[in-house]
Amino acid sequence: MKRFLLWGLAVLFLSGCGYREEQKNEKPPIVRAETLDTGTVLITVGFIQTGKESDWRDANTNDFLQTFTREKGYNLIYIDGNSDPERQVKAAYDLIAQNVDYIIIDPIVEDGWEDVFMEAKEKGIPVIVSDRQVNVNASHYACWVGSDFYKEGQNAAKWLEDYLEEKGREKEEIKIVLLEGTDGATATRGRTEGLYSVIDRHPNWKVVAKEFGNFTQGEGAQVMEGILNQKIAFDVVIAENDNMMFGAMNAMDQQGIVYGNGTDIITISFDALHEALAKVIKGELMVTVECNPLIAGLSEKAILDLEKGRRIEKVHFVQETVFTQENTVLHLMERKY
Ligand code: GZL
To answer: Between the CA of residue 243 and those of 165, 200, 295, what are the distances in Å?
Structure first.
């Protein structure tokens, strides 16, 4: 209803009724509900992404750009958060001021969202939270779509449990290096809590080093180099995404440390990028726990249901797999990221 009213105003506004040259210099007009040649009114969706961090992030962004197209009836306003939480919040206020129909946010960190979510709710703009989560009362947003990060962390540690048992090493002292993602990010919190829910079951397991690598390959390499330079002995490297693992591998390569199947260093990471699956097949990486970035469709379905006035679930989990040498070859060719 709001959009059709806007459209009417848009037609009136742009047909010369009330449009004057000097208005060009005033505050830009609110975003008009654009229309296709067919007269179809587009749904204006503002999407605020975290920023470039990883290959996972690129695949996630591309999925949104390929889902919310004009041909499918959307006017997508894409905003790169540039890895800056404050920039993301400001972008949300800007989208509210533009009176978009929907806002989708992938929050870099969970805190700092309460006020702007309240503002969107007051203005009647549904907010969908995608991928990571926010510390906001769930009544202030339409729904959250994404991965069960806690389960991902548990699955990674359960694989380690099974592997060690299979090798007869369940009683052995196991020293773990953990490269965490971004401090305050849901993916980091969930995976770490999930990992520790299993690690804490084993008094003979010890986390000998734990550093934030912000999900980037460069920082993964940097923090791993620092750990290696401290001459800390370890048996397992767990990285909370594939790109940090690639960085850690580069750091170990520099010091002639061998890792993966048939060596003393067990390697475990998350995301299941195509490049990671190739490393699993080669044996360098022993496990990558899938974190599916192709979730734009979940947000689109929520919007289409809301457009029809349907009630939607608050939480929408995406399906995911644990990739090991046993099951990876089957999936490698079909992967979209
Ligand atoms: C997880 C996502 C994480 C990925 C990283 O859903 O938030 O951020 O695991 C990405 O690769 O950068």
So the answer is: 28, 26, 20
pTM reported for the whole predicted model = 0.82
Closest-CA residue to 141 (of 187, 189, 104):
104
242 conformational bin, left if phi > 0, alpha if psi -120 to 50, beta if neither: alpha
Distance from residue 57's CA to the centre of ligand 1 (Å): 7
Residue 144 to residue 320: CA distance in whole angstroms: 17
Going by C-alpha positions, the residue among 134, 257, 240 that lies closest to residue 192 is: 240
Dist. CA 26 → ligand 1 center (Å): 40
**Binding-site residues, ligand 1, Cβ < 6 A:** 53-54, 56-57, 131-132, 146-147, 187, 215, 241, 270-271, 291
Q: Give the chain's domains with CATH numbers.
A: 2-146+293-319 (3.40.50.2300), 149-291 (3.40.50.2300)
* Range name among 13-22, 76-85, 96-105 with the lowest pLDDT average: 13-22
User: Is the four-CA dihedral 230, 236, 239, 243 of positive or negative sign?
Assistant: positive
Q: What is the DSSP letter of 31?
A: P
Q: Which atom of ligand 1 is nearest to the CA of 182?
A: 8
- Per-residue confidence (pLDDT) for residue 20, from 0 to 100: 29
Nearest to 79 by CA among 64, 67, 99: 64
Q: Mean pLDDT throughout 184-198?
A: 97
